[in-house]
Amino acid sequence: MPLLSHEHRAWIDEAVRRVEADANRSADTHLHVVPLPGPGGIDLYLKDESVHPTGSLKHRLARSLFLYSLCNGWLNAGSTVVEASSGSTAVSEAYFARLVGLPFVAVMPRSTSPEKIKLIEWYGGRCHFVEEAGEVYDEARRVAAECDGHYMDQFTYAERATDWRGNNNIAESIFQQLSRERHPVPAWVVVSAGTGGTSATIGRYLHYKRHPTRLLVADPENSAFLDGWRLDTSEHTTGLPSRIEGIGRPRVEPSFVGGVIDDMLRVPDAASIATMRWVSDRLGRAVGGSTGTNVWASLQVIERMRAAGEAGSVVTLLCDAGERYASTYYDDAWLAEHGIDLAPYAAALAEYDATGVLPTV
After folding, report:
1. Residue 266 half-sphere exposure, CB side, CA atoms within 13 Å?
2. CA distance 322 to 291
């Protein structure tokens, strides 16, 4: 391999400086207490990743992927950055591409919400559509080769681009923010998986710090992660797209690290969306569908803890804001078109509010 030119090295140094300066300007994300009905003793917290500059948890991933690619020498002043995404990662990568002065192309399913498409384009990115979610990988490679660009490949590199031992990653941040709470070491952390990078980072951190905290990963309908984990295979596929944008995949992605996970739970799409609306009402602000997935799974964990007479805290993630889904999850006509009936889960959550007990649906 030829030596890096002085110009290339100088460009990398400046690009890294810009990305690091952006992080230095950004405050940490908030940790909200979610009021719960029923007996006390268990606290639920939402780590609010929607307050990042690009409005989602994927801002952390995009920053890490850009630093990883820059420090590996994979990007230069003439690179076109290409990514396969269901939307939010592409929004955040478009932001960082603009920050370092590179063009960006997002390869996405045509079903991606119009709100996310507008954000990608607002940051200067270009959207390239495929019909099926499983087509994004090969098409992103093809687009990158065609324009002599660099395929970021979040689904492969998410688990290794972030320093899981600390360095202000999401896990370290959660524990620092809980340090003065009545249950500073959570009983459970609940997340969902898109790439698997967040669950890998949090799970490794828990093991590294020897915390007794357990990690549960919530998986939406049609996703391959849960069955792949149960079968202990990375070869499992469903061939079906997730209807909860940003989480769930038709295959077990390379960044999914099953060995750090203590439990997994399947969450029906109707439960995710009904709980999304329930959380929005409690917070007084709209949240996205994957937040509903996380909170529904967290409520199941809390019911288990109460049944066992346990006290403690449960932490999960507010992944992004609901404005990105105004034309989908918040649109009753869209739900009817896609055969998603919220009524059983909305009724269960209403009963939970009234009695403090979440019934089985």
Report:
1. 12
2. 9
Among 5, 21, 29, which residue's Cα sits nearest to residue 96?
21
pLDDT tens-place string over residues 147-184: 999 999 999 999 999 989 877 799 999 999 999 999 99
How many whole angstroms separate alpha carbon 342 and alpha carbon 332? 10
Q: Which of 23, 88, 94 is nearest to 57 (CA)?
A: 88
Domains and CATH numbers, the chain: 22-54+165-353 (3.40.50.1100), 58-158 (3.40.50.1100)
* Rg of the chain, C-alpha, whole Å: 20
Name the residue among 181, 229, 189 with its Cα closest to residue 205: 189
Are β-strands 42-48 and 30-34 bridged in parallel, bridged antiparallel, or unpaired? antiparallel
**Which segments of 38-88 are extended strands (E)?**
42-48, 81-84
Tell me which H or E stretch contains 192.
Answer: strand 188-192
CB 86 within 8 A of CB 130: no
Q: Considering the entire predicted model, what is its pTM?
A: 0.94
